[in-house]
Model the fold of this input.
Amino acid sequence: MNLIIGLDHVNLLIDNGDDALARARAFYQDLLGLEPLERPANTDSGNPGAWYQCGLQQLHLTTEKEASVVNQKSRRHPAFRVANLEALRHKLVAAGIEIIAGNRFPGQERFFVRDPWGNRLEFVERSL
Done:
């Protein structure tokens, strides 16, 4: 019997600051189109953050001092499955986001970007 049945959410760190949540909304909600969720008031010992629906899973953002310093050097990342990788690529490029090529695997196309705090994000379109 499998006790793990799937992923519920991924949590990414963003820098704290007065404009952190507005910048998160501009990137994750306005640019990527994720649906915002109500974030319980008792999460993360009072650190501000935001939650978004992403398919059946959720993306959680938590503020932390100097998060981008660590993020810029890290290869860790969530991978978002998308329906139209080229349309997303064009939207991101038009917004001034640098596209980072990923190596190719059979049955899928992909690329990476860094969010405003340096979190590495992968976008994948599968043809299978």
The mean pLDDT is 92. The chain has three helices and eight strands. The beta strands are 9-15, 35-37, 49-54, 57-64, 79-81, 100-101, 108-114, 120-126.
